[in-house]
Amino acid sequence: MSTTIASEYANEVKNVPIEHQFNPYSDNGGTILGIAGEDFAVLAGDTRHTTDYSINSRYEPKVFECGDNIVISANGFAADGTALVKRFQNNLKWYHFDHNNKKMSMKSAARNIQHLLYGKRFFPYYVHTIIAGLDEEGKGAVYSFDPVGSYEREQCRAGGAAASLIMPFLDNQVNFKNQYEPDSDGTKPRPVKFLSVEEVVQLVRDAFSSATERHIHVGDGVEILIVTKEGVRTEYFPLKRD
Amino acid sequence: MFRNNYDGDSVTFSPTGRLFQVEYALEAIKQGSVTVGVRSKKHAVLVALKRNADELSSYQKKIIKCDEHLGLSLAGLAPDGRVLSNYLRQQCNYSSLVYNRKLSLEKAGHLLSDKAQKNTQSYGGRPYGVGLLLAGYDNSGPHLLEFQPSGNTLELYGAAIGARSQGAKTYLERTLNEYLEVEEADQLIAVAVEALRQCLKDESLSTKNLSIAVVGQDKPFSVLDDDAVAPYL
Amino acid sequence: MNHDPFEWGRPSNEVYGEYNKTIANASPYPSMHTQQPIVTGTSVISMKYNGGVVIAADNLGSYGSLLRFNDIERLIPVGRNTVVGISGDISDMQQLEYLLEEMQTENNYDNQYADEEEALRPSYVFEYLANVMYSRRSKMNPLWNALIVAGVEDAKPFLKYVNLLGVTYSAPSLATGFGAHLALPLLRKVVDVESDVENTDLETAKRSIVEAMKVLFYRDARSSRKYSLAIIDIEKGLILDKNAKVEDMVWGFAKDIRGYGTQKV
Q1: pTM for the predicted model, two decimal places
Q2: How far apart are CA C120 and CA B197, in angstroms?
Q3: Min distance A67 CA to chain B CA atoms (Å)
Q4: Pairwise pLDDT comparison (C263 vs A139), residue with the higher score
């Protein structure tokens, strides 16, 4: 096999063999989901770890507590995800050293993660990153990032393998998209309101069990990290293992 | 007036085999305010007397945390202490990132020694003008180390460095057998504070000038300042 | 001007003559990174049990489809309670062996607690290897291996995986390569989730591994009958059997197979 290589201006056309190159990325499946409530936020992820059609592990958590009431997950290529989380946790540690143990705010954490991601703009971390916590007013906050550091604060966001399955469900159930007041004949949108922790946890469980049904890279279990002003607590629920 | 011919740099021996610059560095420690360290079989404790330049100024920080299991107190040139504590922070960090391992106190001591020793053998530099007490809890239990600018690092049950530290040393030598067996961290802190008192002349301990740190099993290195030290006065 | 950007930034041959590579003592080749494994070792398989871990790998080094070396040891003991099992490129494995040797030397240097409290632990060895693997992949120069680190730590079994991409994971039973498809389903019948481990004893675990090695020898063309099996037990420590052989095979059916051999149908 060979292919032609030439630039637009070349007066010489070279014929060289196609080289098989080492591929530094892989897809390790899994999906994550963050929702912000009025005075809390959750970040959930399934615990299945895959490559191609193999299940590597049924319990490999990918949502982590960092301290300062910040939880993080970087879903996609697992090695990059692990590296990114470790780097952020390390930055947080040095932030404490350098700023006399000052608590890092969510917006500072988000900006820092942008720099970590953009710093590898030309050899990106192949991950969809979400962080969750409370903002400076104590309101629930979720920030989501693309692989090269674009970020935005949102009410909710799904990431990873089944993001496209879960996100529309969230639009409908968290932001009440396409829901209208009864008797208004579809003219008055249903007003949005904050959901309770219980409602959100149930929503997350439903999202994950549905994603498990439809996506082969999602399953085994879901771990939900819940951030309140009291701190971070973890809940685990089994999912189908087929 | 007398002038010493062999103290211009830290690499030239005197005819009697001494490095005067290194000896002067040891003197710098004695100018610093006192700090005391003790360890039992369960904990290691550091206490220090903070100084302020005048009534309008803040107090000089004496105890620096390097990792969850390790920290130090200093006597002498504070900027030099900052450089060394920063170095230790980096080494602790490297160890936990690359090896998932707490830096052992023994290793920490060797690293500091090697760094200080380099200054005594390369031209143009000067020795560090600071003495350190390292307290930590690693896989082999609690440890207390004393670091000197000469590159010596020794492990001790009790140590005191800085101005009038001899008082504390004498006190600790006398009470060694009792505090070695102490179970509670609070009790060990009390011993250290009492030792520190032996070094006071004009001043007295207060919430303003006392700094305390404690570390043990399942007890991360934590520094107490201001109102938090009141129970120990 | 020459508008071909490929020619920009270098002395033109017309003016300076062809570049003489020997001047800068440069290699006549571009610097090369591992693009593919050459001599390879096949699967490593392992599982936890209530008192430790069992891990096994055969002794074959394949050169493509040629069974080239038949006495390659792919289970590397590190300290007294860790074994690293390595599959993939054998020369890269030997580089890893060197790094592990160096790690042990380093740990024994000026360390009065080297034999007990500050001895190397499986998690230390794993973290180090995972960092080596990930940093090499990030330089686009991978060590072409998949490894399993097995051992005991804090009186509990330890088992983790890392490969040439730096991807890491942990499970009560782990296998690399072909073993992930052929052996792992068998091992998961015994220990699928962490809670299964406490109900599994050494005998069961060892039997499962031995049986899985048999299946691999039957079905994996690049495997050998001779293999090594290590047990890292909380009480008994590290036991490495370098002379295990696949036994109790059934080949009676072979004589009836028609159409592949020299027999007349």
Answers
A1: 0.93
A2: 42
A3: 13
A4: A139
C-chain residues near B99 (CB < 8 A): 124, 127-128
| Residue in this structure with the two tokens 């390292």, named with its chain if needed | B134
- Band of the pLDDT at C255, cuts 50, 70, 90? confident
**CA dist., res. A139 & res. A38, Å (int):** 5
Three-state SS annotation for chain C: CCCCHHHCCCCCHHHHCCCCCCCCCCCCCCCCCCCCCCEEECCEEEEEECCEEEEEEECCEEECCEEEECCCCCEEEECCCEEEEEEEEHHHHHHHHHHHHHHHHHHHCCCCCCCCCCCCCHHHHHHHHHHHHHHHHHCCCCCCEEEEEEEEECCEEEEEEEECCCCEECCCEEECCHHHHHCHHHHHHHCCCHHHHHHCCHHHHHHHHHHHHHHHHHHCCCCCCEEEEEEEECCCEEEEEEEEECCCCCCHHHHHCCCCCCCCC
Encoding tokens for residue C255? 């004589």
Q: Length of chain B in residues, anyone? A: 233
CATH fold of B3-232: Glutamine Phosphoribosylpyrophosphate, subunit 1, domain 1 (3.60.20)
ipTM, 2 decimals?
Answer: 0.94
| Chain B closest-CA separation from residue C225 CA (Å) | 36
Q: What angle do CA B30, B33, B34 make, to 5 degrees?
A: 85
3-state DSSP assignment of residue B54:
coil
Q: Enumerate the residues of chain A whose CB falls inside 8 A of the CB of residue C161.
A: 56
Q: Is residue A15 part of a domain?
A: no
C128-153, pLDDT tens digit by residue? 999 999 999 999 999 999 999 999 99
CB atoms within 10 A of CB B209: 19
Query: What is residue C12's predicted lDDT score, i.e. its pLDDT?
Result: 82
In chain C, where the domains are located:
39-244
Angle among Cα A182, A184, A190 to the nearest 5 degrees reads: 60
Domain over C39-244 is classified CATH 3.40.50.300: no
- According to DSSP, residue B229 is labeled G
Q: Answer yes or no: C40 catalytic.
A: no
Domain that holds residue A58: 31-237
Active-site residue (options: C34, C82, C176, C200): C34
pLDDT tens per residue across span A25-63: 999 999 999 999 999 999 999 999 999 999 999 999 999
Structural domain count of chain A? 1
What's the half-sphere exposure (Cβ side, CA atoms, 13 Å) at B31? 10
User: Secondary structure of C75-110 in the HEC alphabet?
Assistant: EEEECCCEEEEEEEEHHHHHHHHHHHHHHHHHHHCC
**Inter-chain touch A9–C169, beta carbons under 8 Å:** no
